[in-house]
Amino acid sequence: MRDRDAAGRARNARPRDAAGRPLPRGAQGVARVPDDLVLPPDATVDEAQRLIDEGLPFPAHDVLEAAWKAAPEPERPLWRALAQLAVGLTHIQRGNTRGAAALLARAGDGLARWVGPPVAGVDAAGLAHWADELAARIEREGLAGLPDRLRPRLRGG
After folding, report:
1. Mean pLDDT of all residues in the chain?
2. Which of 49, 52, 135, 145 yields a CA-CA distance of 20 to 30 A from 83?
3. CATH code linked to domain 41-141
4. 80 pLDDT tier (thresholds 50, 70, 90)
């Protein structure tokens, strides 16, 4: 029987590891991001950066995805690209070469296309370059030799 929320939507309440993989019920997992999380843009970037720095890109993705869903329509492509960047890092953590390269390339493309005003100090151009370079490296050489934790800086400076 699947876990359901109060509205009847399927929700997986199983604990998860740092890479977002479900663990057996009763196991100790990493803290989950609340489904109803809504933070202001600066707090979203701060929390996503903290999680990435701690080697938790899957929860960072959840934070960025919440921002993407709650953002005004013009900002959604930026938040979506940031969420894709975090998923690309998650795929690296999971050892998924193809998924990592694909999501990082998609994130790089989305970030490079961002022409709106700066949001929460996000360095869209710098992150686009970082994601594209990493995706190309992974396509050429695979995941071997990458550091245990990749820590892109979401904000410039």
Report:
1. 90
2. 145
3. 1.10.3450
4. very high
